[in-house]
Every structure is written in structure tokens, then in C-alpha cells.
Amino acid sequence: xxxxxxxxxxxxxxxxxxxxxxxxxxxxxxxxxxxxxxxxxxxxxxxxxxxxxxxxxxxxxxxxxxxxxxxxxxxxxxxxxxxxxxxxxxxxxxxxxxxxxxxxxxxxxxxxxxxxxxxxxxxxxxxxxxxxxxxxxxxxxxxxxxxxxxxxxxxxxxx
Length: 159
Prior knowledge:
mainly alpha
């Protein structure tokens, strides 16, 4: 049976004209609202990782139709995500709360390193990644723009 958890101090939220309703089958005593917020925050890190995997590494478009080959592409993207994340973690950012590495550019640099089979040491890659630092913008409230994507056809293989 699902239960709805409401904030106990509702007057504070009425002033903002906003409500948050959490529907769950977890016990209210074991999982209070503050713990639910903490769990959601941990889940959000996973969601941003999937966003990077899909869009920065191109894990949304596949080159084959067969399930086995799509599985191979997914595993290849996951491995590449782990390699890029390891490289990004090695980059020294001066103010980590104010600045972060541009993950998409780091993907491009690491992919270029593997395509060219460079003999450069990894420190050169770290130095190149460290050139692409962006400010962290907290507190932004931009509306999400949802765009439908048409299917990708394999017409070029017919000829």
C-alpha cells in the first residue's frame, strides 16, 4: 500500500505556493522526509552520470540493430565513461566548489588519445583536460525543454 508523506511544517511551504509530495511504500518512521531527501540527492548523482553517458559519449545512438551488438556498444560506452571519469578525477582543480572540469571536452580529449594511439604519457592528457574548466552554477531554475527525437533509419545500408 502506498503512503503519501507530507511536510509537517506546511505553513512555511504555503507561503511559497509550492508543495512536494513523496509517494512511497517505505515506512514513515524508518524513512522521514529528511532521509528521503538524502536518498534522492544520492540518486541524482546517478542520473547525471547517465546523462553524461548518453549525451557526452554518444550512448544514445547505436550503430547496429542486433541486441548482442547493442549490448557490446553499451559496455564500450560504460568502459569509456569510467576511463574519462578516472582521468577527470586526476585533474587538479583549484576551487572544486567553484569550478569543475568540462566532461564533454574530457570525453573528446580521451577519445582522441585512443583514436590516434598517441605515445604521450597520461600527464599530458591531464594537462590538456585541465584547460577546460567551467564555473559551477548553483541555484539555477531553468525550465526543462523536452524535444521529441525522430527515429534514425538505416537507409544508407540498403544501397
